[in-house]
Design a protein that fits this description.
Elements: H1 3-15, H2 20-35, H3 44-59, H4 65-72, H5 76-89, H6 99-110, H7 114-129, H8 138-153, H9 159-166, H10 170-184, H11 194-197
Helix pairs in contact: 1-2, 1-3, 2-3, 3-4, 3-5, 6-7, 6-8, 6-9, 7-8, 8-9, 8-10, 9-10
């Protein structure tokens, strides 16, 4: 890994305020990725973003593709595709992101009460059981749950405030909230097939 490649990785890690463990994982993955010449046909910036995103996933930290792609100034779709290629080529086993980790992060950033956060976790659990997490961004599911829980208790948060912290659009929060209300209020629809609802996601 040359100085330019190392600087790209280090700069992105610092910009995302990553913990030391993510630093270590990202640099280890970067050495492997560049040694395997995965940068052929791709920019150094995209490879750097991919290894940093993978490092967050490996360490259990929650950073979305949108957050990493925005900070790295690379296309989200390209980043997702390169990240999957990276995981495949380097045989990296990665657990899927956990929406509860997003709830904790958003609740902390928004300074919501413990009871509101606990209710948001319950909403996320029920949403997952109904299949609402499949085919959509988990950050949107978690953000809607936090907004939903706060709305039911105080109504002190706006959709825009939550959307800004979560890095999703207010439209996404409204769509995810609409789905959650259907499930939680038991309006006769029962479990909603993810294949039906995912097309509502415009984010």
């Amino acid at each position: 890994m040359n100085d330019h490649q190392q600087a790209e990785v280090a700069g992105l890690i610092d910009a995302l305020d990553a913990p030391e463990t993510v630093h270590e994982i990202a640099h280890a993955l970067a050495y492997r990725a560049f040694a395997a010449e995965l940068q052929k046909g791709r920019s150094t910036k995209v490879i750097a973003a991919s290894v940093v995103y993978a490092a967050f996933r490996r360490d259990g930290e929650t950073r979305t593709l949108d957050e990493v792609s925005a900070e790295a100034d690379v296309d989200r779709t390209t980043l997702g595709r390169t990240y999957r290629r990276l995981a495949d080529e380097l045989d990296i086993a990665l657990e899927p992101p956990n929406p509860h980790e997003f709830v904790e992060r958003f609740a902390d950033s928004l300074d919501v009460e413990d009871r509101t956060e606990a209710r948001a976790h319950e909403i996320v659990t029920e949403s997952a059981e109904a299949g609402l997490h499949s085919g959509v961004k988990l950050a949107g599911v978690a953000a809607a749950a936090v907004y939903h829980a706060d709305r039911d208790r105080h109504g002190s948060l706006t959709q825009r405030e939550v959307a800004t912290v979560a890095g999703v659009s207010a439209v996404t929060i409204r769509h995810r909230l609409h789905e959650q209300v259907h499930v939680l209020e038991g309006d006769g629809h029962g479990k909603i097939a993810a294949s039906r609802w995912q097309y509502l996601d415009t984010d």
